[in-house]
Amino acid sequence: MALAMLDLVTHEEAPPRSPAVHLAGARTLTYADLTGLVGGAERSLRHDGKALVLCAGDRDLPTLLVYLAALRLGHTVAFLPATAEVLSAYQPEFVVPAPGAGEGLADLGYRPGEHSIGGTQVFRRRAAGPADDIFAHTALLLATSGTTGSPKAVRLSYDGLADNTAAVIRALGITSAERAPTTLPITHAYGLSVLNTHLLAGASIVLSDRSPLSLAMWDHLTRAGATSFSAVPTTYAAFGPAHVNLLGRTEIRTMTQSGARLGDELTMRLARMMEHRRGRFFAMYGQTEAVSRISCLDPADLPGRLGSVGVAVPGGTITIGPVRPHDRAAPGEGAVHYRGPGVMLGYATGRADLRRGAEVDLLDTGDLGYLRDGYLYLTGRTKRIVKVLGVRTSLDDLERMVERPDHPSAVICGDDDVVYLFGAGDAAVHEQQRRQLAEALGVPSRHVVLRPVDHLPRTPGGKVDYRTLAAVVDTREVGQWN
């Protein structure tokens, strides 16, 4: 079977003289410059057959060059941490640590290669691995939002990567005139999609590893003439008057959101802000298991479709499957299924799994929702349906019921028929929420317990980290996470 590959650097949409990457310090790489640097990276990644290339960096030039070179060579890129556990599980042929890192790799069976890429040393595995043990069409291994640091990863194909990237370009109308800053980790599906779509469209990226809320990032994207901005809900929720003023100095005309649910009030605030700038705000929905984005809400559909995450990206189909109902289920609510560009090959936990080909046709997203005229409305996660005193209820629905934009809260359920409300705002407001939850559930007040915290723990994708909350639900040491 011939190796698949993807060229995001030299294609008909990317004229050699066009800008490709805007670096800090006002330095710009054209597509011709980028092609030369990627060619050098390819020489460092030459291998007899298909190789696994583990990239431990993020939003830096060496990581970008390695990623683009590996795709052109037909290798598989793993955006996973270079820990002993991960390296033992996957035995990658190449390891490219984060800039300035790399200590300890020699003890784990890796030696420095002859060349560096963008000043970062490339390490090769000393022991020879089995030949042709990676499925020819495997392009990426990405951690899911709940498995960061674990060897479990999503296997994504070259066809899926290319098709989903093209679908998102069509959904957002991305042209070669766009300039997108790397406001999200490129080691995760959403941030990587921003990179892929703009390079495949012949547009350019503003490469920075700064926080999307930092003055340094805004200074860089302003100087580079960025035209778009992508972020998760926690970033948008932290947008203050200073950021609105900074936005006014930029050329940004497109904003996108994905990663977690965005409240209706904040959605409309952002939509009106962009409309005032004669721009567009896109609410989106996606999963790593579908390469990136599954649906997109056209700005013209607001406010009429407020609360929806839109329709399936071009080529995709969303259906609703049956599930056991809960007491607050919406009409037509069920399991959200997706078939279309980008559906994963399957999961992996180690090297042996990389031999396997496609094992998934219809993706069960694990989300609950319903369709109205083809528009998807999400209502929660199937694993967040619990029983409280014998009544099945959705914890996500309870969260929405007491939602306050300026008072972050999260709801989990213990093993003792007790619902726990974690609140990171005014204690008096959260006490009102607690009583509202008890009334809605129809349970004695003692079955809803308030746990005040300094802030809610978040996953790298910006979602509430319910695992961390569950782990501390029986202790008093809450709010101490980073």
Q: How does the SSE layout of this entry go?
A:
Layout: E1 19-22, E2 28-30, H1 31-44, E3 52-55, H2 61-73, E4 76-79, H3 84-90, E5 94-96, E6 110-117, E7 120-125, E8 138-142, E9 153-157, H4 158-172, E10 179-181, H5 189-200, E11 204-206, H6 215-223, E12 228-231, H7 233-237, H8 241-247, E13 254-257, H9 264-276, E14 280-286, E15 293-297, E16 311-312, E17 317-321, E18 334-339, E19 346-348, E20 363-372, E21 375-381, E22 385-388, E23 391-394, H10 395-401, E24 409-413, E25 419-423, H11 427-441, E26 448-452, H12 466-471
Parallel strand pairs: 1-11, 3-4, 3-5, 4-8, 10-11, 12-13, 13-14, 25-26
Antiparallel strand pairs: 1-2, 5-7, 6-7, 8-9, 9-19, 14-15, 15-16, 17-18, 18-20, 20-21, 22-23, 24-25
